[in-house]
Give the backbone structure.
Amino acid sequence: MYKVWLPQLPEPNNPDLKRWLPFALKIGMFNKDSILIGHSAGASLILSILENLDFKVSQAILVAVFFEQVGDRKEAILQPSYEWQKIKGNVDDLIIINSDNDPWGCDDKVGKKLFDQLGGTLIIRHDGHFGSDTHNQPYPDFSLLLKLVD
């Protein structure tokens, strides 16, 4: 049985690391058994959470993750740089799931670059952004997650 925490991040439609990270670190219920799962900006937030922990969590699953600016967009959820060794050292099992046809650039190339930094497991699918109202891509069920959760 799992205890699930689904944070109601401040201004969820406007991802900003300066608001989200302190909130997550203060309110978060992280411990050595934690499994962190995030999608898009939430997955990017998990990279920063992992960098700021002083212990190792069990697992992190990053879906449609990005860690650098994509195109002309300036994403306030991203750090200017990351301490890759610290992030890598703070998670036992890291899984990166990106798509080869993501419309926002959170694609297989970004997933591969992150995998090259952190290792873990890289899964590439053909599922767009794994859910998007903008692109009429409903994604009510992601059964792969159930298979991957440690």
